[in-house]
Amino acid sequence: MGKRRGKKNGPAAGSRSTPQPATGSAEQGTEGGGTGPAASGAGITWQEARGTGDAVAVNGGTAVSGIYNAVHLPAGALREPAEVDAPAGIDNLPYRPEVFVGRETELDRLDAALRTPGAALVQAVHGLGGIGKSALAAHWAATRPHGRAPVRWITAYSPVGIRQSLASLAVALQPVLDTVLTQKGLAEYALKWLATHPGWLLVLDNVDDPAHIADLIRKFPDGRFLITSRRANVWPDAVPLVRLDTLGPEESLDLLTRKVTQTGPRNLDGAAALCEELGHLPLAVEQAGAYLARNPLLTPRDYLGLLAADPAEVYGCADLAAVPAVSRVWRLTLDRLHTLHPATTDILRALAWYAPEHIPAALAGADVDPVARATALGLLHEYGMITLDPATDTVAVHRVVQALARTPDGADPHRTPELIDQAHRQATGNLGLVFPDDHDDPANWPAWRALLPHFDALIGRRSADADTAETVDVINQTALFLRSQGLVVDALPRLRRALASSERILGEDHPDTLGVRNNLAMAYESAGDLRRAVPLMERTFKDAARVMGKKHPATLTARNNLAGAYRSTGDLRRAIPLMEQALEDQLRIHGEDDPDTSMFRNNLAYVYESIGDLSRAVPLLEQTLRDRARVLGEDHPDTLTSRNNLAYIYRSAGDTARAIPLFEQTLKDRVRVLGEDHPDVFMSRSDLATAYQEAGDLRRAIPLFERTLEDRTRVLGADHPHTLASRNNLANACQTAGELHRALPLHEQALADAERVLGKDHPHTLTCRHNLANACLATGDLRRALALMDQTVKDRVRVLGKKHPDTLTSRSCLAGACREVGDVRRALFLLTQTVKDRVQVSGTNHPHTVIARNDLALAYLAVGDLHRAVPLHERALADAERVLGKDHPHTLTSRNNLATAYQAAGDPQRAVRLLEQAARDLTRVVGKDHPHVVRCRNNLASAYQTAGDLRQAIPLFEQTLAQSRKLLGETHPTTAKVRENLDSAIVEKGT
């Protein structure tokens, strides 16, 4: 019987053909100390380069959040949606009409369709503006029993309004969530709650486009939905419609009579004629009744005379057939209100530019005396022009009234073009005055969320041509908040509009224009669109230096941001001098203790880490930590971030013995200072999990990755970039643990989510595709792996460039796939080119270059070209010892690989000596319970077998098999390989 030789594990720990970190959506090591300095006294905020997530896989980093907001929550304060019962008072009907008449037929139809809780149905009510659709829905919902099932009113005119209303539901269920979850996180929490609780009713008010609510209805086939809409012919056949027309003459008269006589008997002469004149439109009749109720000496016939004296109608609002009737009532009411309190008309015109519901009362006049504002709002409420909700301190204005108030009419003294323009400016200014200061602080998130629908309404109701400098500032601030929430797709179009308007209004060289251009470039970088980001940053830096001077804080910020963008593109040759100059200037101008000095020093350290120069990176981060602890205190979030960053650098250097305790202490302190659900806590937990993974402690790493994914999904939302990175990290850890049945679906979901949320060309999406290809390779699905690798290389070349580090990594992995399918010639060509490009891009001494040379040596070894393989392995080991140090994990792996080459070359004695040394060193550096030690011991046993020393080979195989079973499990590929090798040795011994 022929002899069977033991199979070696080869480069299990050393090749770059491994799952990649979630670049793009993960932190890149750079940080920002808040929102950056203002470019000038005008006040446009410049956003500084900062990370957006946690360090992942191998080369992540951490970033200061700029948040000093401790959120201390009692144990059990945050519960799963399924565990939360609807609290008392959760219904949120915005108003119940004081007087409601008629509509018996429509109410009966709604009763038949929707009255039974638990019965699934969708019902739509449609009709023109002012006809009473919302009043009908509110009256029906308030007067019918729903058991204990909640009734929630959803403002459904736009996706933003729907998301805002769902977020409000989550806060009503658990108020503590308001300052913990992002808006997307709150909305997803509400959806999970709805999915686990039957019987509820959602009133989807004022739906403009059925597509806006299609997903919501599709998610809940057993739900009850009552829809109101002006549109009739856009609904699928499955949605039954209730058409609402004007009131009948008797109902109209009843409504007017009840409104007028609320305070006592009145002379109703001319009431029927007045209703006829108003077309029996409920809104017009109600407002006329409110006017008459407030002026007891007037009769309906007197009011008719007033109408006859002002026959003007409104044009330009073709979709609002109600406007002509309402405009006549409006004119009389506004005349009276202006006489009583001149500020009422100004306030009403300003309110017309916001969303119609849930308008914070402060927006009625942020710079007006609160008592005067309250008096004016009270009068508007009395006359039926607005609805006040004292419980929430908010205002509602009917859409028809808003449309009228925004429409210029030279014949109406309350709606001249000048007054309309003035109202728009006032509405814009009011928003700017009430915006919270810090969009990163979770304590401000509820206020930001409350203002978003009104911002969207304000900028959506006028074209960009009408923007002012104040509009630009409001758009800029809102876009920065959206980006901080992971909503960069929403932020980009707003910033593009802000930049175009600022260039037109202020000029291309105005400091505020430069600030907006900087922020747009930062948003492009967050979106992974580096082709747009870098030229914008280059222009901004050049213009800032020319306009404001090289020493201006905004110029320093622009230089820092440009350097960070170069780093993102892999252009380290340009990034390093810029960051070095930025730090030098910052120190000279602002000194050691300025917060931005620590930030610049941190960012320079990470650029040094990117080129493998840890000897310069580590001292910089150690100094940053000392400075922040001295200036800010040990428990300041920025100090904790510096400690986390230093731990990351230790991990990059392969020093997990120092990294892990530092990560553990930082996580403990962040939980104590910031609370369990702070984003920085998630970041620390993910970083610690990665350190455990690199130390081979997968039993602790995987549960931490699982918890981080669960917490980020709950708090930030399933589509937040940090959550996407967490799913990628968990998939990589499962793959490392040999749990391919878990890893592959996770990789597939990570890619699908990234394509849907970020787009197919985002760097994180390309990373997910790269990692899925690796998983397919690990499962033996070579055809799929090769196709995915090929596509990833092409896409990375197109998006990032031919020599971007990520492109070169994908090319190395493609070479590995080619080698597996037998295309050795292509594999060698790819790896040879990769080594040349790594040398050109990163230099001979960069770790990536060392690893690329190791990969090429392994390829030559795989094809039996020992003449080339052995010298390359010898050089790879020498380079690793020189660049990384003798105890770095990759150096130890290179030693293992060289021994494998010696063994293949027929020199088992040299192989044994090297492997014995490698096993001792690995055990000393990473501990005996590390997968790398298992693989090295397996290779050593194989070398003993090749040398004919079965007396040492078999016991070592047996020990290694037991160790692999303990660490990796019975089904892990490494365990299977060791078992096969042991069987081979036993068979050989028996021959």
From TrEMBL:
Residues 1-42 are annotated as: Disordered. SUPFAM superfamilies: P-loop containing nucleoside triphosphate hydrolases, TPR-like. Gene3D superfamilies: P-loop containing nucleotide triphosphate hydrolases (3.40.50.300), Tetratricopeptide repeat domain (1.25.40.10). SMART domains: TPR (SM00028). Pfam families: NB-ARC, TPR_10, TPR_12. One of its GO terms (molecular function) is ADP binding. InterPro entries: NB-ARC, NLR-like, P-loop_NTPase, TPR-like_helical_dom_sf, TPR_rpt. Residues 104-262 form the NB-ARC domain. This is Tetratricopeptide (TPR) repeat protein. It comes from Streptomyces paradoxus.
